[in-house]
Amino acid sequence: MRFDDLPSWLRWQESLHPRTIELGLERVAVVWSRLQAAPVAFPVITIAGTNGKGSCAALLESIYRAAGYRTACYTSPHLLRYNERIRLDGLEIRDAALCAAFERVDRARGDSTLTYFEFGTLAALDLFARARPDVAVLEVGLGGRLDAVNILAPDVAVVTTIGLDHTEWLGATPNEIAAEKAGIFRPGRPAIIGHRAPARALLERSATLGCELFVLGRDFDWADEAPGWRWSGPERVWEGLPAPGLRGTFQRDNAATALMAVACLHPRLPVSNLHLGRGLREARPPGRFQILPGPVTWLLDVAHNAQAAATLAANLSAFRCPGRVHGVLGILKDKDPQAIAGPLVGQIDAWYLGSGADPRSLPATDLHAALRELAADRERHECQDIATALRTAAERARTGDCILAFGSFTTVAAALQYTHGTAE
């Protein structure tokens, strides 16, 4: 084996390929054919979209686990541990199993170089193929058409909301981005759009491929129905459903989209109302308006684009913090700081701006400059790094105040480490 421990494997993978991101399926498809010659024997649900992917994946994993099915789930990025990305039966993959999968990928790749994401995706899919779960849920990392996850043909393809993000890779307009997301659709198979105003490219692609198309608000939807809510779709209605464990009215759209996927696979993987309810209640992916209660309440959200920031602003308004709101913000260089901070300016009393440990993080000086006019009438602190920003916010907060840490996965990861006393 090339390395005996997980950190060594991951450090090596970061430098293996000359580019951090290189979209395309040719190299990964060749390596996958050497790893697994036969098609996988379990149904696959693949999820693409700008926002809502992680929530849908968590809901589907939770529902199928509640129903007693053996699940596999692949998501990215991770917050605290790389192992979070790969789960079997709800449990993070162990280091030893992951290192063994990395070794198999390394042997199968030959002279081909793979990106960090491609290497991890191939390892995850190899682990899933060997585990033979009842169902696999795969979250697209970037785009869809050329993402490494797309080497497996999904039995059900899901596209959540579309917004402007990763424009340098996916296109400058929502429709161009949607065309990339639509690349996960397959001929004659169910395609689900979890957005009430679907982009034209999604509709055109599904029509070209003859997909069985289901659009939120047109073919399936949800409605309040005391004491819970109901879901209705083609030939099926589920009533008396509890509120999802994920906060925000918009999560009903994500839940309804996940239930449409469950309905599509229902002939193969039937799920009762009881198990649907349990799965909805227990789905709680970290970093999605995650609340850590205490004398000072911490609110953690990975919102890192304009669309997600607007949703976060709505959640924060509904939460109604009794005291002051302290906002800790750290974002990556390829993000628009004004688009992320803008929706929240009116609700945040004091800003703490820092750069995360990720080398792609935007320097605090640039972040402060971007917010100089946007939050001109608000207290602002330019901090040395995100750890300092978190500590400064915690020192200034008083009982009844809230600290909102948001802007990137690295910001939320640092906040989790800080609140759990594990920050370096």
Kindly describe this structure.
This protein is of the alpha/beta class and 424 residues long. The protein has two domains: 6-282, 3-Layer(aba) Sandwich (UDP-N-acetylmuramoyl-L-alanine:D-glutamate ligase); 290-419, Mur ligase, C-terminal domain (Protein-Tyrosine Phosphatase, Chain A). The chain is built from 15 helices and 17 strands. Strands 4-3-2-5-1-6-7-8 form an eight-stranded mixed sheet, sandwiched between helices. Strands 12-13-17-14-15-16 form a six-stranded mixed sheet, sandwiched between helices. β14 (325-329), α12 and β15 (350-353) form a beta-alpha-beta unit. The radius of gyration is 21 Å and the shape is globular. The mean pLDDT is 92.
Specify the overall morphology: globular
CATH class of the largest domain: Alpha Beta
Count of discrete domains: 2
| Secondary structure tally, helices | 15
CATH domain fold name of the largest domain: UDP-N-acetylmuramoyl-L-alanine:D-glutamate ligase
Mean pLDDT: 92
Main β-sheet description: 8 strands, mixed
CATH superfamily of the largest domain: Mur-like, catalytic domain
Helix content: 25-40%
CATH architecture assignment of the largest domain: 3-Layer(aba) Sandwich
| Estimated structural class | alpha/beta
| Low-confidence region ranges | none
Strand segment tally: 17
Instruction: Compute the separation of the termini in Å.
Output: 31 Å
User: Which sequence of strands runs across the widest sheet?
Assistant: 4-3-2-5-1-6-7-8
Residue share in β-strands: 15-25%
